[in-house]
Amino acid sequence: MKTLNEFMNEQLENTEFKKEYEKIQPEMDVIRAIVDARIAQNLTQKELSERTGIDQADISKLENGTRNPTLNLLKRLADGMGMSLKIEFVPKAKV
């Protein structure tokens, strides 16, 4: 049985798959950052909701990718976790 990494590496050899995967990568990075920060603080979605005033259902939608966050919403999440929001532009990797 293949691991997820093995499967992904195999799929990324397909140029169409790679192109679509790279399109959604920024959204996936935002989702991963939200989930990782929340889990690192041992917060449930409900606890984060209570700290931020953002409905728990909306936090769930953010984390499962069915809702795109605004910059203001990201700031509220960061504040609720006692963190600062940092957004940066980085050079693309040369192929």
Automatic annotation (TrEMBL):
GO molecular function: DNA binding
Top-level taxon in the UniProt lineage: Bacteria
Record organism: Eisenbergiella tayi
Name the UniProt record assigns to this protein: Transcriptional regulator
InterPro entries in alphabetical order: Cro/C1-type_HTH, Lambda_DNA-bd_dom_sf
SMART domains xrefs: HTH_XRE
Signal peptide limits: none
Pfam family, one: HTH_3
Coiled-coil region: none
Residue stretches making up the HTH cro/C1-type domain: 34-89
